[in-house]
UniProtKB/TrEMBL annotation:
Residues 1-15 have a biased composition (Polar residues). Residues 1-36, 65-104 are annotated as: Disordered. Pfam families: BD-FAE. The keyword 4Fe-4S does not apply. It catalyses: [protein]-C-terminal S-[(2E,6E)-farnesyl]-L-cysteine methyl ester + H2O = [protein]-C-terminal S-[(2E,6E)-farnesyl]-L-cysteine + methanol + H(+). Residues 86-97 have a biased composition (Low complexity). It is found in: Endoplasmic reticulum membrane; Golgi apparatus membrane. It is a multi-pass membrane protein. InterPro entries: AB_hydrolase_fold, BD-FAE-like_dom, GDXG_lipolytic_enzyme. This is protein-S-isoprenylcysteine alpha-carbonyl methylesterase. Belongs to the AB hydrolase superfamily. Isoprenylcysteine methylesterase family.
Length: 465
């Protein structure tokens, strides 16, 4: 006997095709298929509602915790380093994510939602970059690169979706993509240092899951990592990205104690485009705090240091370089809200503005990591920024890694297992005032290899970054 329950549909949806944003491309140049790109966009992401995995806190009240003195920073110039080849149960935490009784169906649904988002980001990238010869070859190289690192990606993805130490999709704001992933150490026997991490992605395909490998590595060292998602272009421009980063950092400063974090040991870190966004956010926060009568929900005094990984901080010096690398000038200027805004969103240039000299003095110490073989963003970007900050009285240093590319420090080296120079420098800085923690970390077995060496070397050779 057939069921008496019938499906209910919206009658209007049967006859109304989905509205798609018209895309008009006038190709003026074989090398730049987007020189004249006219877009009438319908922001579908803003219309999409996402059910938060955690209830959102109703207010972001400012804390009064003061940061302890930062670790030692080398005062003169940069250091050049050459790489040598080579349980206890988690306590119940207030407001934490999934319950033990979560079904497999929910995990599958979440994985499907993540896959859908990544696919949509890829299609947006293709739409804005065009299908010229240069980008066809780049995408072929990217495909080979991803295939060679696939053994590592599978292991990272498995932990990302199934590990109970990862709280995915915590809501930190009301706007689209105002979510963060929280990576928690297994041993939570006391307040833990915290890194608020802003991922890269050329300001177009950034996503919080890109920081999963780093997050999983640092939790093994007893460090909490909050990977902050933010709106990308064309969903938002650079000012939207900075706004999201500021709100995500505010959430971490005001609520990390609920997850076992130490409010006196909070660090901010960014990689590639995320390093630029994070540096802009700290500069904007410094300007806000120096303005009389300006109220803020958090303070730079809560940030012990900023770590920049393979970032660019002077856009006037990089716009032509990005164009030659395939991030065409027309697209880049659209991301940065026009040529007139390049100076405003160049932390290196803003720091030298006499009108914000007082604000610059509020900045935390800056530690900038970069590979000397980075062709996506030359290592001079970090070196000159550190030198500029030093001249202005800010504690800053650049640490250069000989022969390392844009992705070696972030992907290939961690997947190689064993000793990781950049990770060691990062951990040593965070635990500089805690020799017992450093001794315990030194006694831990080395990380296991995730990808065979020959595949890592091939990935290094074919990488489009």
């Amino acid at each position: 006997m057939p069921s008496s329950l019938l499906p209910v549909t919206n009658p209007s949806s049967r006859h109304s095709p989905p509205i798609m944003p018209p895309l008009l491309i006038s190709k003026a140049d074989d090398d730049d298929p987007t020189t004249r790109l006219m877009i009438s966009s319908y922001d579908d992401e803003k219309a999409m509602q996402v059910r938060p995995l955690l209830s959102r806190t109703s207010s972001y009240s400012s804390t009064t915790a003061m940061a302890a003195p930062a670790g030692p920073v080398v005062p003169n110039g940069h250091q050049r380093r050459r790489r040598i080849s080579s349980e206890s149960c988690l306590p119940s935490l207030s407001g934490s994510g999934t319950d033990d009784g979560d079904s497999l169906e929910r995990e599958v649904e979440h994985a499907a939602a993540e896959t859908f988002l990544l696919t949509r980001l890829s299609l947006k990238l293709l739409r804005y970059l065009g299908v010229g010869y240069r980008w066809i070859t780049r995408f072929l190289a990217l495909g080979c690169y991803a295939f060679l690192l696939m053994p590592g990606f599978i292991q990272v993805g498995y932990s990302y979706f199934l590990s109970k130490q990862i709280r995915r999709g915590i809501v930190y704001g009301d706007l689209p993509r105002n979510r963060l992933d929280l990576y928690l150490p297994k041993n939570m026997d006391g307040p833990r240092p915290v890194i608020a991490f802003i991922t890269g992605g050329a300001w177009i395909i950034g996503y919080k899951a890109w920081g999963s490998l780093l997050g999983q590595q640092l939790t093994e060292k007893g460090i909490i990592v909050a990977c902050i998602d933010y709106r990308n272009f064309p969903q938002g421009t650079i000012s939207d990205m900075v706004t999201d980063a500021l709100q995500g950092i505010s959430f971490v400063c005001n609520h990390i104690t609920e997850y076992g974090g130490d409010p006196n040991r909070i660090y901010v870190m960014g990689q590639s485009a995320g390093a630029h966004v994070a540096a802009c956010a700290l500069m904007e926060q410094a300007i806000k705090e120096s303005a009389e009568g300006e109220s803020t929900s958090w303070s730079l005094l809560q940030i012990k240091a900023y770590f920049g990984l393979s970032g660019g901080y002077n856009l006037l010096n990089l716009v032509d370089h990005f164009h030659n690398r395939g991030l065409y000038r027309s697209i880049f200027l659209g991301i940065m809200e026009g040529e007139q805004s390049l100076r405003r969103f160049s932390p290196e240039l803003m720091a030298q503005d006499p009108n914000v000299r007082t604000a610059v003095s509020r900045l935390p110490p800056f530690v900038l990591f970069h590979g000397t073989a980075d062709y996506s963003i030359p290592s001079d970007a970090s070196k000159t920024f550190a030198q500029t900050l030093q001249r202005l009285g800010v504690k800053a240093e650049s640490i250069l890694y000989e022969g390392k590319t844009h992705t070696d420090l972030f992907l290939q080296d961690p997947m190689r297992g064993g000793t990781d120079d950049m990770l060691e420098d990062l951990v040593n800085y965070i635990y500089a005032d805690n020799p017992k923690a450093l001794a315990k970390i030194a006694e831990a077995p080395p990380r296991r290899r995730m990808v065979p060496e020959f595949m890592l070397k091939l990935a290094h050779s074919v990488s489009p970054f």
